[in-house]
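It is worth pausing here to work through a concrete case rather than discussing structure prediction in the abstract. The textbook approach is simple: state the sequence, then state the predicted structure, then interpret. We follow exactly that order.
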Amino acid sequence: MWAMRRLLELLALCGLAIVEPVLRVFGQSPTTFLANDVTGLRVVWFTALIVLVPPLVLFGLEQLVRRAAGATAATLLHRVLLTGLAAVATVGLLVRFTDVGGAAMLAVAAAAGVAFLQIIERLPAAREWVRWLAIGPFVFAGLFLFGSPVGDLLDQAPVDAIALQRIDPTGAEVAGATEIRVVTAPGTPESVAGDGTRDGTAGPQTIRDVGGAPLPDVVVVLFDELPLVSLLDGEGSIDAGLYPNLARLARTSTWYRNSTAVSDRTRSAVPATLTGRMPPATEVAATAQNYPENLFTLLGDAYRLDVWERLQLCPAQLCPRPSSGSLTDLIGDAGDVLGEQLDGEPDAPPPLAALGHRDESMHQVDRLDRFVQALAPDGDGRPTLHFMHALLPHSPWQLMPSGAAYADPDPTYGAVFDPWITWEGAEVADLARRRHGLQLQYADRQLGAILDRLEQQDRFDSTVVAVLADHGIGFTPGEEIRDFDRGSAPEVAWVPMLVKGVDQTEPVRSDASVTTMDLVPTLADRIGVRVPWRTDGRALAPDEASDAPRGFMDQSPGPDASPQAVALPESRFDDVLTWDTIGEGDDPALALYRTRAHPDLVGRTVDDLTFGSDATASIRLRTDATPIWDGTDRIPTWVDGDISPAAHGDPIAVIVNGRVGAVATVATAAGRPAAVSAIVPEHDVDEGRNKITFALVTGPPDDPTLHSIRVE
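Step two, the predicted structure:
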């Protein structure tokens, strides 16, 4: 009985300190579970682990202490645990409902923990009440499983393909559809890649011969967090120097330049894109069960599906996945949520719901490489839909244009949660945008690999190709990075959308108002099939506006607010076309490393520059001043440190192996030292030992003087 009472007390306190905050935050993000391929009973297992493991581990620890050191030591440990858990629960309340933070928050929480222990030890009724609270974790679990969007993941009902309907150029249906049996390797199950994607082979299945001319192959590349303004050259065209392959595709495609996304969140934007329908106002998980009419079920009747998605809109019947996903990353994310709460971040979302895992960018390199290698025609003559949802150039920004990864100190560098994500200043926002541009250059390079492979297989002309993005991201200082309703709207709402039809060789640029909901009807039109469900989007012809509502489902109004459908003024498209470009100068190899502060210095050697007296400032680096690179590990192109004394906006030359790799501007913010942060070109880094030095830049841009800065 004694042991049971202590277990109930631990269960109650763990429920308040751990279970409630973790399940509340995770309940807002079914995408996190989908990305880890955790659905069905695996969600229940995750919930059980969160509810039961912490109190059982603590109770087991008490029992070990009791056996080893006696009942008195075990009682003392129990008191310490109750005090600590009560303090953690108090931190959660302070973070959510007050502005108390820092040392004051910890002091209040500690006092509350001690007071809690005193109350339950002096008032038996209070202690009994706490034991009754042991039901709390199970109530939180029930709300999580049946009262949050994550509950949708429990539904694993089968979803089948839709009977494909061919149409001829006049719009009439093609008759004579029959079923045929295709077997590539008798008795061999479909091969499934480790992340739930298909590797291009197919096992036995029944498909339909829909009659008429052969159906074309289709390639859809859906980028993530890619604003149209990131691509533009200042004159309304795609910058061919920075992004040669997107410009290359535009030369044989219809570029719907005035294209807008319909949501600021992947979990809503992608389903809207692949169904042609406006996302619902209430949150639902992005699964085939919730969206049974989508691009995959439309084409899965007659197409081989080579689908690489991070959601689960393609039914398991058409896109087999591993039988179970790993819970390891999710448990790690749960620890991150608690850590963020203790750091004073209210309702900070799980990593995949916000800025992404630290290694997510590197994971995308592997996914894209495997997608390119699997890009091949079906050996049985069936058409193939190749679909890639690439979480690029989505943050964290850690990739150089070559795909080499660099180690930054924080994937959310320069971002502030208050309660959503903003940039703390113009300098860090500009640096983040240029890092985004470098990662976008890698994404463009991989798009080039896709186009090259289609051409090598003599399939490019006969394939329908679509490239677009789910939504953008803002780099406007002081604005929420996904809030389209204010200054960052042109960055968040307008996204690229290019569609190449079969045998299209001439470019078409359309500025008619369209949305990403027009993609599926437009693809169906290019393929020659009918979309048998009602869509908000329409099949697009050049210079013809969409019927879809020109609106945006804003899901960033605040942690406790409902999504809002907000109209997009057409006049904002003019802002898109005149938006500031990324980087400076005409040299594509250096443009993203140059800023308006002495851009011509970047790329010059110290032998060509004038040096004056040494500066009084010194730099304390968080990165290595003499990094050693072995040619394969993360490349040391990220430079970061504190500088003192320095004024906000001072230009600092970052010199790598005797060449100026960047000119950073000093950034200051309340509560921390002045900082210097920069990204330098990878071609300035040599294998072996490198040397990084710094200099304050004074004088006019056409005659600068450098003053060496001491590195501590």
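Step three, interpretation. Residues 175-209, 346-356, 557-561 have pLDDT under 50 and may be disordered. The first strand starts at residue 178 and ends at 182.
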